[in-house]
C-alpha cells in the first residue's frame, strides 16, 4: 500500500514486479507468498469482536486481490505469472496443486501463492513456510519495511541493534517478531534458511539472491 493508509499503490506493485523480474531473468525460480493486510487484517478484526475464522477468511480473500494486482504488474514486465490459491476460485486463479505449481516454476513462470494455507488461525508467514517446504525452496526471502532483525522495534527504539545472523532458537527464545512462532518452528524443523530484508530499498532482492550481505539471516 506504500504510503497510503489502505489499498494498493500501483507504484509499489510496479517496484516489486521490477525486483522479481530482475531475479527471474537470472534464472532463479521464484514463488511469491502474498499477504492482505493493506486491505483487510483478520487478526485486527477479530480483536474488535469479529469471529476469528470469518475474519481470517476475509483476510485470505484480500490476499487474492493483491495476488491479481501483482500478477498484472509482473505481466506488464513480460513475466509469465500464475496466481495459485488455497481456496478454490477457478474463475480468477488456479487451485493449489503442488506438482502443477512446481511445473510452473520449472517452466520459468513466477507463481504467486494466495489465500494463505486456506485455513483460519494460520498466518501468511506460516503459509510461506509451508509452501516453501512443498516446492523444496532453497530459502525464504521475507520482504518487510525494516532492513533485518533487531533487538527491539527500530521504529520505536532507535538504540536497537541489528543481527547479521541469528539462529531459529534465539528468535523463539527472545520473542523477536520476525515471523510467527509456527512459521519459525516449521523452518527450524526443516532447516530452511530465512533472509529478512527491506523490500522498499531498490535492488535489495537481487543483491540478496547474489549472496551479498543484505538484511538478517536466520539459520540453525
Characterise the protein shown here.
The protein is of the alpha/beta class. It has 2 domains: 136 residues, Acetylglutamate kinase-like (Carbamate kinase, 3-Layer(aba) Sandwich); 83 residues, Carbamate kinase (3-Layer(aba) Sandwich), CATH 3.40.1160.10. It contains 8 helices and 10 strands. The protein has a 4-stranded parallel sheet, sandwiched between helices. Strands 5-9-10-8 form a 4-stranded mixed sheet. It is globular. The mean pLDDT is 95.
Shape annotation: globular
Strand order of the main beta sheet, please?
A: 1-4-2-3
CATH level 1 class label of the largest domain: Alpha Beta
Main sheet specs: 4 strands, parallel
Number of domains: 2
Low-confidence stretches: none
The CATH homologous superfamily of the largest domain is called Acetylglutamate kinase-like
Approximate strand percentage: 15-25%
Q: What is the CATH topology of the largest domain?
A: Carbamate kinase
Would you list the SSEs in sequence order as H and E?
HEHHEEHEHEEEEHHEHE
Determine the structural class based on helices, strands and strand pairing. alpha/beta
Mean pLDDT: 95
Helix content: 40-55%
Q: How does CATH name the architecture of the largest domain? A: 3-Layer(aba) Sandwich
Using only C-alpha atoms, the radius of gyration works out to 17 Å
- From the N-terminal CA to the C-terminal CA, the straight-line distance is 33 Å
Put simply, the count of helices is 8
Tally of strands: 10
Amino acid at each position: 500500500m506504500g504510503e497510503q493508509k489502505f489499498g494498493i499503490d500501483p507504484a509499489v506493485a510496479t517496484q516489486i514486479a521490477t525486483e522479481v523480474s530482475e531475479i527471474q531473468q537470472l534464472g532463479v525460480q521464484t514463488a511469491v507468498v502474498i499477504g492482505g493486510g493493506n486491505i483487510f487484517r483478520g487478526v485486527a478484526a477479530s480483536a474488535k469482536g469479529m469471529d476469528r475464522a470469518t475474519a481470517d477468511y476475509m483476510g485470505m480473500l484480500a490476499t487474492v486481490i493483491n495476488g491479481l494486482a501483482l500478477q498484472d504488474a509482473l505481466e506488464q514486465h513480460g513475466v509469465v505469472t500464475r496466481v495459485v490459491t488455497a481456496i478454490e476460485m477457478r474463475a480468477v486463479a488456479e487451485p493449489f496443486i503442488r506438482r502443477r505449481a512446481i511445473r510452473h516454476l520449472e517452466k520459468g513462470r513466477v507463481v504467486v501463492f494466495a489465500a494463505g494455507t486456506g485455513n483460519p488461525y494460520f498466518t501468511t508467514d506460516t503459509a510461506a513456510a509451508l509452501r516453501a517446504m512443498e516446492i523444496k525452496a532453497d530459502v525464504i526471502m521475507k520482504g518487510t519495511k525494516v532492513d533485518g532483525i533487531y533487538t527491539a522495534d527500530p521504529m520505536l527504539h532507535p538504540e536497537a541493534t541489528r543481527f547479521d545472523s541469528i539462529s531459529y532458537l534465539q528468535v523463539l527464545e527472545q520473542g523477536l517478531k520476525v515471523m510467527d512462532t509456527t512459521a519459525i518452528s516449521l523452518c527450524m524443523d526443516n532447516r530452511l534458511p530465512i533472509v529478512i530484508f527491506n523490500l522498499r530499498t531498490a535492488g535489495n532482492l537481487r543483491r540478496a539472491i547474489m549472496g551479498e550481505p543484505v538484511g538478517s539471516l536466520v539459520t540453525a
